[in-house]
Amino acid sequence: MSIKKKIGGAVLATALGAALISGGSYALFTDTAENTGNTFTTGGVTIEDIGSTLKSTHFFDDLAPGDAESWTVTIENKNNLDAWVKVVDGAEAYDMTGDLFKGEHGLEISENTQVVKIPAGQSRTFDFSYNFPKEAGNVYQGAKGELTINFQAVQVRNNDGDSGPTSWE
Q1: What number of other Cβ atoms are within 10 A of residue 73's Cβ?
Q2: Quick one: which of 8, 50, 84, 136 is 20 to 30 A from 150 by CA?
Q3: In terms of Cα–Cα distance, which of 111, 7, 133, 113 is closest to 67?
Q4: How far, in Å, CA of 139 to CA of 3, rounded?
Q5: Model confidence over 144-160: pLDDT tens digits?
Q6: 135, part of any domain
Q7: Is the dihedral of CA 58, 61, 66, 70 positive or negative?
Q8: Is residue 165 part of a domain?
Q9: Is 59 left (phi over 0), alpha (psi -120 to 50) or beta?
């Protein structure tokens, strides 16, 4: 084997080893939160801290076709690091159960794409709205539904971009 091949192999092995070591040592603290149990039946909002999960229950009463309303959910950062917080992306963002959300004219929930920096020990609000289409017919009379909004949080320190984190993982 030529000296060039030996040197090339040694350089390649060194680069691969460095990549494996540096890749294994880069990690960020992450967390998830859920905004669960939002039952559309009677009235009130509750936010409670249950470990690393946040839970908010919304009750909405006597909906009729054509109703639309906005509400806020307050998320508190109860730990000692500043955090970026958002609603989880994609299909995992909202869990909607019950007949009120089913069918062609079921209750619609607005998409929230806010990314909010919450300093340690402080809270921020997230805005949401619903629309019950005017086209909803008698099939929805007496229907109920429960909405869970899932939140995601990641540390700000060493992960601070211009308008959000450089990584959510």
Answers
A1: 20
A2: 136
A3: 133
A4: 81
A5: 998 888 888 888 888 88
A6: yes
A7: negative
A8: no
A9: beta
